[in-house]
Automatic annotation (TrEMBL):
This is Kinase-like domain-containing protein. The lineage of its organism: Eukaryota, Fungi, Fungi incertae sedis, Mucoromycota, Glomeromycotina. Residues 1-92 form the Hemicentin-1-like von Willebrand factor A domain. It comes from the Eukaryota. Keywords: Kinase, Secreted, Signal, Transferase. It is found in: Secreted. GO terms for molecular function: kinase activity.
Length: 203
């Protein structure tokens, strides 16, 4: 998840919906053990706050306690370190379950003219040399199903570029100003992503 300053209400929505998701999965027959993790990203100007990672846990309480320490801050220019965040989620977290779901939530795209015409401190792309093909390719190699939660229209170009690399994937509309509605949207999107991945996996 993008954890820059503009994402405050959506971070709260994620915190408030995760228990509902875990409880819902526990009612399925057979019950599904959900391991939830969190990878937050900001931007290159945010230094040590650029990435905030909590590895997977089966404890809903541990997850909620971890995410309660996430605060919206920083960000700089409109584009954010999307590729750095996705790369960290794929390569720095301990993926174990056979069905693997990555729900990415963001309001702005990665750096680079390939993704946006907005003001950009890195118009040539990721300053660390990450490219979408490599990051998304590693995600596919790890058997991770990708889902995106769209908050603004600023991510449309990114969505199309990503689809040209990995094919079609579900995009959820998470635009909302009402806290209750936002939690409901998070819940529906997360459950849908997990159920879709399980169906595709044939498990």
């Amino acid at each position: 998840m993008d954890c820059t300053s503009s994402m405050g209400s959506h971070i709260e929505g994620a915190k408030n919906s995760i228990k509902r998701v875990v409880d819902y999965m526990a009612t399925m027959k057979p019950a599904i053990i959900v391991r939830a993790g969190f990878c937050g990203y900001r931007d290159h100007c945010d230094g040590s706050d650029r990435l905030q990672i909590f590895d997977f846990t089966t404890s809903c309480d541990d997850f909620k306690n971890n995410v309660s320490n996430v605060s919206p801050l920083g960000g700089g220019d409109p584009p954010e370190d999307v590729l750095g965040g996705l790369n960290a989620a794929v390569t720095s977290m301990t993926w174990r379950n056979p069905t693997r779901v990555l729900l990415h939530i963001a309001d702005y795209p990665p750096h680079g003219r390939r993704f946006t015409d907005m003001s950009d401190d890195y118009p040539g792309g990721d300053p660390n040399g990450l490219i979408a093909e490599r990051v998304l390719g590693e995600m596919q190699s790890a058997g991770i199903y990708y889902f995106f939660g769209r908050i603004t229209e600023q991510t449309e170009k990114m969505i199309k570029v990503f689809q040209s690399i990995i094919g079609e994937y579900p995009v959820f509309d998470l635009k909302s100003t009402e806290p209750e509605e936002l939690v409901e949207k998070f819940f529906e999107a997360t459950c849908s992503a997990i159920n879709t991945a399980i169906t595709l996996k044939g498990e």
